[in-house]
Recover the amino acids of this structure.
């Protein structure tokens, strides 16, 4: 579902659909600002870099591959722009404490683990979407068990239902999660060399 949505968004942007681009911009701008600001520690520059990221995305739209994740692609552009910002700032302020801090951040943002963090953000968003798709009773039982640590017996007492009903809800939730995450996990394992 998410993969198909990403494909549609990427295809529309590649074809110059300004409305889809604006919607994507509104949905992801603050995420990009937050992501960049974690490394450069300057919200104003982070906003500028986020703006530049979307300008670069729009200017390079003809080269977008709709089969790749448009969100990951956008975060990669932001990462590269933040890297350039940190590099330039380090050159401009040689020997200062700020320069040393930026040099450390430069190493952090250039780390290969950063791509994994971007993927983790995407997975977190997908999990939130699946949570919202769960039937109400299933979601309540699953949330009480997984997020609040209640036992099946405690959930049954709290909701006034049988333990078997709670077990059924948890099994249903897990089946939905497995089914929805199956495609994502296959792709993830393929890229990580696990398959």
């Amino acid at each position: 579902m998410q993969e198909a949505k990403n494909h549609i968004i990427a295809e529309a942007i590649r074809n110059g659909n300004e409305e889809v681009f604006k919607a994507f911009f509104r949905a992801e701008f603050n995420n990009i600002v937050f992501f960049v600001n974690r490394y450069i520690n300057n919200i104003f520059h982070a906003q500028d870099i986020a703006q530049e990221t979307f300008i670069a995305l729009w200017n390079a739209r003809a080269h977008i591959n709709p089969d790749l994740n448009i969100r990951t692609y956008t975060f990669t552009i932001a990462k590269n722009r933040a890297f350039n910002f940190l590099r330039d700032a380090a050159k401009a302020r040689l020997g200062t404490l700020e320069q040393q801090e930026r040099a450390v951040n430069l190493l952090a943002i250039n780390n290969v683990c950063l791509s994994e963090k971007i993927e983790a953000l995407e997975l977190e968003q997908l999990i939130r979407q699946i949570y919202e798709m769960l039937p109400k009773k299933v979601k309540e039982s699953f949330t009480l068990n997984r997020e609040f640590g209640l036992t099946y017996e405690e959930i049954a007492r709290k909701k006034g239902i049988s333990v078997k009903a709670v077990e059924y809800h948890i099994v249903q939730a897990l089946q939905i999660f497995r089914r929805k995450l199956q495609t994502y996990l296959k792709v993830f394992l393929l890229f990580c060399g696990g398959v």
About this structure: Confidence is low (pLDDT under 50) at residues 190-195. The radius of gyration is 21 Å.
